[in-house]
C-alpha cells in the first residue's frame, strides 16, 4: 500500500483520524509536527517564534520527504500544502487525502487551544480568513472527505472506502 498523507486545516481531525486509520490498517503513523518537535527538541510554537514560519516550513518539507512512501499514514501540519513541492510529493508518492471540516466546527474544537502559533492570541480572529486562503489549495487533493459530522472511526472508514482498501 502506498502511504496515505492526511492534510487539512488545524482541528480537522488529521492526528486522531490518522491514529485510527493506522490501527485499522495495522500500519505505522507518522506525525510530521511531532517528529519535527523531537528532531528540533522544542515545540512548534517555539520554532515559529524563535526561527520563523519560513524555517518551520522548510523543516516540514524535509520531514515529509524523509518518511516512508509505503505502508504508512502521515499526518501533516495544516500548512504543509502551502509548498507546491510538498503537494507534488504527496501526489506522486502516495495517496493525498484532504480532511475538510466546516470552519464553525473548527472554531469550536480550537476555542481553548493555545498551542497553535498561527491562531494564538489576537490571530484567532483571523482563523476563517486563513481557512478561506488555504481552501483552494486543499481542494487540489485527489481524495476529499468531509469530517464535519463524522466520528473519528467514521472518518477513518470513509478514507478506507475512498481509497478502495
Description:
It is a single chain. With 165 residues, this protein is of the alpha/beta class. It contains eight helices and five strands. It has a five-stranded parallel β-sheet, with helices on both faces. It is globular.
The string of secondary-structure elements, in order, is: EHEHHHEHEHHEH
- The low-confidence runs, each spanning 5 or more residues with pLDDT under 50, are none
Label the structural class. alpha/beta
Number of E-type strands: 5
Form type? globular
Radius of gyration: 15 Å
Strand order of the largest sheet: 2-3-1-4-5
| Overall pLDDT | 91
Distance between the termini: 9 Å
Count the DSSP helices. 8
Beta-strand fraction estimate: 5-15%
Report on the biggest sheet. 5 strands, parallel
Helix proportion: 40-55%
